[in-house]
Amino acid sequence: MRAAAIQLTATDDVAANRATAERLVRGAAAAGAQLVVLPEKWPALGSGEVLRGAAQGLDGPLVAWARALAAELRIDLVAGSFSERVEGADKLSNTSVHAGPDGELRGVYRKVHLFDVEVEGTVYRESEHEAPGDELVVTQAAGGVELGLSVCYDVRFPELYRALAVRGARVLSIPAAFTLPTTRDHWEVLVRARAIENACFVVAANQIGEHAPGLRSGGRSLIVDPWGIVLAQAPDREGFVVADLDLEAQARIRATLPALRHRRPEVYA
Where in the sequence is the domain holding 30, given as residue range(s)? Predict the structure, then answer.
């Protein structure tokens, strides 16, 4: 399986963001990618007002676009995440969707961990506008390859990824808009750790550049193998990277270093 991670700079211009996303997804598919992952909040990124203005339901045009494009290109498309307006809810959900090569929705994941932190003097409060999800999601890509869905800040919670691996995930997707400082110091370490400890491939698609005044992401999108080797890393600009995921090599790694089988959950409890 060949995978691609898309890296772009989303702003408050939904039409421009979608045009960039489509151009890069098409480019990745032309390069042979069968699984393509967009970054977090690729349709619109900015203030809470921007997110609310761009929010849509699962039956809206953004998800319809993702499904149609996946079907046209015959790819598995993890459409990063978008601000979902959920009927009857006061707050938005940060939602990742997986559209299959048949254009059908294979999975819907709502970000479990909200980014309420302070980084180098900048305060982030996702909980002001978003509600956390409460369900982990493993879907199936073409060929029956199990895909575990997550979003951005989730990467700091190893128990989430262990649960996905125990449920059968062989590839993990991490759409992100990691801040510039945390990308610089934490991003690669965290992504590689999630790959190693779960013997999974990780496709981590990060945003890059300035989205609004004071809001910057660090790029360096990664594709990592189950041994923790970085197969591809994006340069500091919009674009995409591709890498081949050797599923047979993954099976050998899991057989010779069977950490997942050596778990003792009765002790951890």
Answer: 2-259
